[in-house]
């Protein structure tokens, strides 16, 4: 039986794409690049097929497909990242990669799911996770394990905080939902598919989400590039925004040619 609600569908698609990616990951490949390419292609093919079958009237914006301008006039647009964290996906034993599926309707994100397949976990707006109580100690900032941005390092210094390295954007955002970090601060630029589903789930869980200057995040825009992002515990939002306002802001980040995630 097809999923009854959009949240159910987001959860089913993210979890099923994740299961497919685990199968792909277990196959022999010549190198990491071949494994990454196969994961991207097969997850995209699965998600596009299921959305075409179950929501044929909806538009889709995906990292792994050409952008179709029809979405700009649509009332409903699915925003998907078939494989968030291709580098981590290709490294044996790493679990910090994800699948993102979100629905934008008439200006708002209304459903979403983030699967972390290697942990057997899918977080969804349909059953918002309960955010654990914050432990005593310094503010913990989720950050890229390979290239922690200067902005977040400066913020940690200003707050007396600590950096918590991890992989993909979705995993970092869900670390805040899961109580493994207190905030995910990103100033290096991303595309809408990098954050739409994580933001939808974070909002459903009661977290603060915004641009770094506190203004709202906007999705299904003509240019899907989003310069910056803040996801944090609501009780820390004012403190983080005030600290960010005091930091020197670097020049606008350059974007990758298409779809690369900046952690």
From TrEMBL:
It holds the Pfam family Inositol_P. CDD domains: CysQ. The keyword Transmembrane helix does not apply. Keywords: Magnesium, Metal-binding. The keyword Metal-binding applies. GO terms for molecular function: 3'(2'),5'-bisphosphate nucleotidase activity; metal ion binding. This is 3'(2'),5'-bisphosphate nucleotidase. It comes from Blastococcus tunisiensis. The lineage of its organism: Bacteria, Bacillati, Actinomycetota, Actinomycetes, Geodermatophilales.
């Amino acid at each position: 039986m097809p999923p009854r609600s959009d949240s159910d569908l987001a959860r089913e698609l993210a979890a099923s794409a994740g299961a497919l990616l685990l199968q792909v990951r277990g196959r022999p490949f010549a190198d990491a690049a071949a494994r990454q390419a196969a994961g991207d292609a097969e997850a995209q093919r699965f998600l596009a097929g299921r959305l075409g079958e179950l929501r044929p009237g909806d538009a889709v914006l995906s990292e792994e497909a050409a952008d179709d301008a029809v979405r700009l006039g649509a009332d409903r647009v699915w925003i998907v990242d078939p494989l968030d964290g291709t580098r981590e996906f290709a490294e044996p034993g790493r679990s910090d990669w994800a699948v993102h599926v979100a629905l934008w309707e008439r200006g708002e994100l209304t459903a979403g799911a983030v699967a972390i397949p290697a942990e057997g976990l899918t977080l969804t707006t349909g059953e918002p996770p309960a955010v654990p109580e914050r432990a005593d100690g310094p503010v913990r900032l989720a950050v890229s394990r390979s290239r922690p941005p200067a902005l977040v390092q400066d913020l940690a210094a200003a707050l007396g905080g600590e950096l918590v390295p991890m992989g993909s954007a979705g995993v970092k955002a869900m670390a805040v939902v899961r109580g493994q970090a207190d905030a995910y601060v990103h100033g290096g630029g991303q595309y809408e598919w990098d954050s739409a589903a994580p933001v939808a789930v974070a909002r459903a869980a009661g977290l603060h989400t915004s641009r770094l200057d506190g203004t709202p995040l906007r999705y299904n825009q003509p240019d899907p590039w989003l310069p910056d992002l803040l996801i944090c515990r609501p009780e820390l939002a004012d403190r983080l925004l005030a600290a960010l306002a005091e930091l020197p802001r670097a020049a606008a980040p350059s974007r990758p040619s298409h779809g690369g995630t900046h952690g």
